[in-house]
TrEMBL record, chain A:
Highest classification ranks of the organism: Eukaryota, Metazoa, Ecdysozoa, Arthropoda, Hexapoda
Main location: cytoplasm
Binding partners and assembly: Homohexamer.
Keywords: Carbohydrate metabolism, Cytoplasm, Hydrolase
Compartments, record wording: Cytoplasm
InterPro entries assigned to the protein according to its UniProt record, in alphabetical order: Glc/Gal-6P_isomerase (IPR006148), Glucosamine6P_isomerase (IPR004547), Glucosamine6P_isomerase_CS (IPR018321), NagB/RpiA_transferase-like (IPR037171)
Organism: Chironomus riparius
Protein name: Glucosamine-6-phosphate isomerase
UniProtKB/TrEMBL annotation, chain B:
Binding site for Zn(2+): 151, 218, 239
Keyword entries, A-Z: Carbohydrate metabolism, Hydrolase, Metal-binding
Originating species: Chironomus riparius
Cofactor: a divalent metal cation
Catalytic activity, EC: 3.5.1.25
Database matches in CDD domains: NagA
UniProt record similarity statement: Belongs to the metallo-dependent hydrolases superfamily. NagA family.
Protein name: N-acetylglucosamine-6-phosphate deacetylase
Keyword Metal-binding included in the entry's annotation: yes
Xref: Gene3D superfamilies: Metal-dependent hydrolases (3.20.20.140), Urease, subunit C, domain 1 (2.30.40.10)
Domain Amidohydrolase-related: 70-405
Catalytic activity: N-acetyl-D-glucosamine 6-phosphate + H2O = D-glucosamine 6-phosphate + acetate
One BP annotation, GO: N-acetylneuraminate catabolic process
Residue positions binding substrate: 162, 242-243, 250, 279, 335-337
Length: 269, 426
């Protein structure tokens, strides 16, 4: 496991965008060789998307041969609702880049048969050859995608009922009316993300610091689902200073000491 | 990496009506705000690209780089008597040619739709001319014709302005008189009349029932007359301040409609205002703008001499002298009408009122469209609206005009010299 500690959320965005760009460009994707990317939504990755758009507009990266799979989507929310993840992905990322619509995969929360939709999603990931790089964020309770506390660490893509805490946290996006917050979501499982060749998790802000502590210093525990990635062969946590507040000094010093090594990850771009 | 060879064409060579066109690198006027956003067009309509992306998995066939231009809905002129030597009310033997000529020339000023306006005329002229001016979709041949604006003859003699006095009439038999005088009104969109005339309220009701917009003007009306007309369905004031009683604090006249508390709930009274910098004083523009911005519609009220060179021109029975961008009765200092084109009127209005650019543009697009009840398809860049729009720079100089997604005018002098027409990105 790697932990890259950066100044603030903007630098986290820039660093992670550079890393994604380097990974894709080094991969040399082409018509017979697509780069498969797992994507998150939420506020944390916004800065990364902005930077990727900037790099794209500067001609430094193309998404023509990139396939994407998104982590999750609400059930029953109209696709053009500003809180839907389709809306987010279109407005914050896809409309600005050269990605081919056929290569974009987002779970359809309005599908007639939700279980079939989830199974099909797993199939499509398999067909695409698995995910090369899965990018994720986490919640303050350590959830990754909608794998909330207590989710099986071997879970697959499925329908998930949302915890009361999540509904309350999300109410602010629905005019503070909790009855309007979707009660369930479709989400990739922890196991789905674990299958990715590499996982990159972005964590910023003091309110996520306890989750980061649980993720990397405490043991693997399904009450903090992100901790499962301790068992993943290639996980990269990227956080800002604020998110390290609950870590031990020793941990922070150790990873900061490795910064020289980590900087090589985005060298030459 | 993205070294696709961009093919460069002139805008007017882009003839791809069925194709999916993406205008990029532009700022578009949507929901009263200029935002950085691409504009997608197909089959002559503005479309929602999100649906294309997720439902059709489609991509733009053509991308047009707008070089940071502002995209505004095309301008709509509700009052224009002619231009380029054409007078709609007098050139009765070449009505179609005259309309065609003006509609084509208007494109250069960003006008993509208009209401040809007829001044007070004898009955025979209406019977001859009205059937020849049909509503007609725009295109390379010219701006869309939204129907005729007939100004008069049921107006006030005292406020006749440049209208011939001997043709002014009363509505002796109410709507029957109106029909007898005009003849075929199936392509009439707006009728200007003086609300103080006997039997006007019932005539207004009937016109509104038939879907015609009634505008009050050329009138001695007091505020009560105006309010009565509005209650019967009138919804527009013709060239505010001009040819009406001046504002008086004990009887504000038609101007008082801007601040009347007798307007039915939910109704907006619109008013045309000539913003050529001559026919309405800057302070009057500001009063109108600050009092009732929602109803403000910029009109040119242009006459035949618009677009003509300086000098004396014989038009119909008149001799008009164009001097210092003003039109005079030849050999006199009497102004005979407005000759400022729409884009200039908008720039004057913006300068005089210091309003937001968005407002100035909407006062010549969204507002007239809403007044006519066609804002679902004209005067807006919302999804599913007609792709009638213009590209402008920040000084509001028109660079190009588009109707139904087709480039109908391109300014060679100022702008965007060429556009990049690129193949789809896959």
């Amino acid at each position: 496991m790697r932990l890259v500690i950066l100044q603030n959320s903007a630098t986290v965005g820039e660093w992670s965008a550079k890393y994604v760009m380097k990974r894709i460009n080094d991969f040399k994707p082409g018509p017979d060789k697509y780069f498969v990317l797992g994507l998150p939504t939420g506020s944390t990755p916004l800065a990364m998307y902005k930077k990727l758009i900037e790099f794209h507009k500067a001609g430094r990266i193309s998404f023509k041969y990139v396939k994407t799979f998104n982590m999750d989507e609400y059930v029953g929310l109209p696709r053009d609702h500003p809180e839907s993840y389709h809306y987010y992905m279109w407005n914050e990322f896809f409309k600005h880049i050269d990605i081919v619509p056929e290569n974009v995969h987002i779970l359809d929360g309005n599908a007639e048969d939700l279980v079939a939709e989830c199974n099909l999603f797993e199939e499509k990931i398999k067909e695409a050859g698995g995910i090369e790089l899965f990018i994720g964020g986490i919640g303050p309770d350590g959830h990754i995608a909608f794998n909330e506390p207590g989710s099986s660490l071997t879970s697959r893509t499925r329908v998930k009922t949302l915890a009361q805490d999540t509904l309350e946290a999300n109410a602010r996006f629905f005019n503070n009316d909790i009855s309007k917050v979707p009660q369930s979501a479709l989400t990739v499982g922890v196991g789905t993300v674990m299958d990715a060749k590499e996982v990159m998790i972005l964590i910023t802000g003091a309110h996520k610091s306890f989750a980061l502590y649980k993720a990397i210093e405490d043991g693997v525990n399904h009450m903090w689902t992100v901790s499962a990635f301790q068992m993943h062969p290639a996980t990269l946590f990227i956080c800002d200073e604020d998110a390290t507040l609950e870590l031990r000094v020793k941990t922070v010093k150790y990873f900061k000491g490795l910064m020289g090594v980590h900087s090589k990850l985005i060298e030459g771009i | 990496m993205l070294s696709q060879q961009a093919t460069v064409f002139a805008l007017s060579q882009v003839e791809l009506p069925q194709r999916l066109i993406k205008f990029k690198n532009c700022r578009i006027l949507r929901n009263h705000t200029i935002i950085r956003e691409d504009l997608w067009v197909r089959n002559g309509k503005i479309i929602n690209p999100e649906k294309i992306f997720f439902d059709e998995k489609g991509q733009a066939h053509v991308q047009i780089d707008c070089h940071n231009a502002i995209i505004s809905p095309g301008f709509i002129d509700l009052q224009i008597n002619g231009g380029y030597g054409v007078d709609f009310s007098y050139d009765i033997n070449s009505v179609e040619d005259g309309i065609l000529k003006v509609s084509k020339k208007l494109l250069a000023h960003g006008v993509t739709s208009f209401c040809p306006t007829l001044v007070t005329s004898p009955k025979e002229i209406y019977h001859q001319v009205l059937p020849k001016i049909k509503r007609k979709a725009g295109g390379k041949h010219g701006a869309t014709i939204l129907g005729v604006h007939v100004e008069g003859p049921f107006i006030s003699i005292e406020k006749k302005g440049a209208h011939p006095e001997n043709c002014i009439r009363e509505l002796e038999n109410g709507f029957d008189t109106l029909e007898a005088v005009y003849g075929d009104i199936s392509d009439v969109s707006i009728i200007t009349l003086a609300p103080e005339k006997p039997r006007v309220p019932e005539v207004i009701s009937e016109l509104v029932r038939r879907g015609i917009i009634v505008s009050v003007g050329h009138s001695m009306a007091d505020l009560i007359h105006g309010e009565t007309a509005v209650k019967h369905g009138a919804s527009l004031i013709t060239h505010l301040f001009n040819a009406m009683m001046p504002f008086h604090h004990r009887d504000p006249g038609l101007v008082g409609l801007l601040a009347s508390n007798e307007i039915p709930d939910g109704k907006t009274v619109y008013f045309g205002i000539i913003t050529d910098g001559i026919h309405t004083h800057g302070a009057a523009l500001r009063i109108a703008y600050r009092t009732h911005p929602k109803g403000l519609i910029i009109v040119t009220d242009a006459i035949s001499a618009m677009g003509l060179e300086e000098g004396t021109h014989r038009i119909g029975q008149y001799s008009i002298e164009v001097r210092d961008h003003k039109a005079y009765v030849a050999g006199t200092n009497t102004l005979c009408g407005s000759i400022a084109p729409m884009d200039e009127c908008i720039r004057v209005f913006l300068h005089e009122t210091q309003c937001p650019i968005e407002f100035a543009l909407e006062a010549a697009s969204l507002h007239p469209a809403t007044c006519l009840g066609i804002s679902d398809r004209k005067g807006t860049l919302n999804y599913e609206a007609d792709a009638d729009f213009i590209l402008l720079d920040d000084n509001l100089i028109v660079h190009s005009a588009w109707i139904a997604g087709e480039c109908v005018y391109e300014n060679n002098k100022h702008s965007i010299p060429k556009v990049d027409v690129q193949p789809p990105e896959n």
